[in-house]
Amino acid sequence: MDVKLDLASYVRVLKLASTPSWDEFSKIAQIAGAGILLVGLLGFTIFAIMTFINPVPV
């Protein structure tokens, strides 16, 4: 484990990294939000189907 080599590679990656533009950030946020909504809708659909098939007694 060479600490100097590791630090040099980390510094090189940080120098290449840049802040995304507003357009890029908003597209990423929209795609992530759509994915979260899709997973939530899928989970709710499975829950509704399972409740319909095997209702829980009250």
Automatic annotation (TrEMBL):
Record Gene3D superfamilies: Preprotein translocase SecE subunit
Annotated source species: Haladaptatus paucihalophilus DX253
Biological-process GO terms, alphabetical: intracellular protein transmembrane transport; protein secretion; protein targeting
Mode of membrane association: Single-pass membrane protein
Ranges that cross the membrane: 28-53
UniProt superkingdom: Archaea
Localization annotation: Cell membrane; Endomembrane system
InterPro entries in the cross-refs: Prot_translocase_SecE_dom_sf, Translocase_Sec61-g, Translocase_SecE/Sec61-g
Main location group: membrane
Family note: Belongs to the SecE/SEC61-gamma family.
One cellular-component annotation, GO: plasma membrane
Subunit annotation: Component of the Sec protein translocase complex. Heterotrimer consisting of SecY (alpha), SecG (beta) and SecE (gamma) subunits. The heterotrimers can form oligomers, although 1 heterotrimer is thought to be able to translocate proteins. Interacts with the ribosome. May interact with SecDF, and other proteins may be involved.
Role description: Essential subunit of the Sec protein translocation channel SecYEG. Clamps together the 2 halves of SecY. May contact the channel plug during translocation.
GO MF annotation list: protein transmembrane transporter activity
Name of protein: Protein translocase subunit SecE
Entry keywords, A to Z: Cell membrane, Membrane, Protein transport, Translocation, Transmembrane, Transmembrane helix, Transport
